[in-house]
Amino acid sequence: MQIQYTLQLAELTFDAILKVFNRKKTFLRFLRSMGVKENVLLGFDPNETKREFLERLFPKMQDTDNGKKAILKMAIELAEFKDFPDLKGFEDSKQKIDSANEAVSKLNQCISEQHKKDTDEKEKARLIENARQRAEEIKKARTNLD
To answer: Quick check: 138 pLDDT over 80?
Structure first.
């Protein structure tokens, strides 16, 4: 099943990026690996926070199909995070890791809900098709009896 871009998924992805990556170099490496173009990353001012940069970047990404695909790719990648090496070695590492785990968990929940909805819709379509076929069989049987 292909997950679908939604505003909620984008918001959860935004939040997870902020919480999973503490160091700017790791943050930029992740964005680069997710297909964010180098010229966009060069626009990251050293005095700018990750949040400020993402607040400029995400609206632009949400306006294009390729940007939405990149956000989906980020969501899928972040949802698989179990360990957070970028958050280790800080005085408040435990709180940072707990916060990252929570953000990844919310992202996973959103993706799981999409999977469930997709599965429910496929099951409903299958049941409707079975009912249609059964009605057709009954109609043929009545025609044969006549």
So the answer is: no
CA distance 76 to 48: 26
Amino acid code (one letter) for 81: F
Show the tokens assigned to 120: 């429910």
- Are the C-beta atoms of 37 and 131 separated by less than 8 Å? no
Quickly list DSSP for 9-36: HHHHHHHHHHHH--SHHHHHHHHHHTT-
- Give the pLDDT score at 123: 65
Residue 106, pLDDT > 60, answer yes
- Strand residues in 16-90 grouped as ranges (E): none
Pick the more confident residue, 128 or 24. 24
CA separation for the pair 111, 34 (Å, rounded): 18
* Residue reference for tokens 């626009």: 43
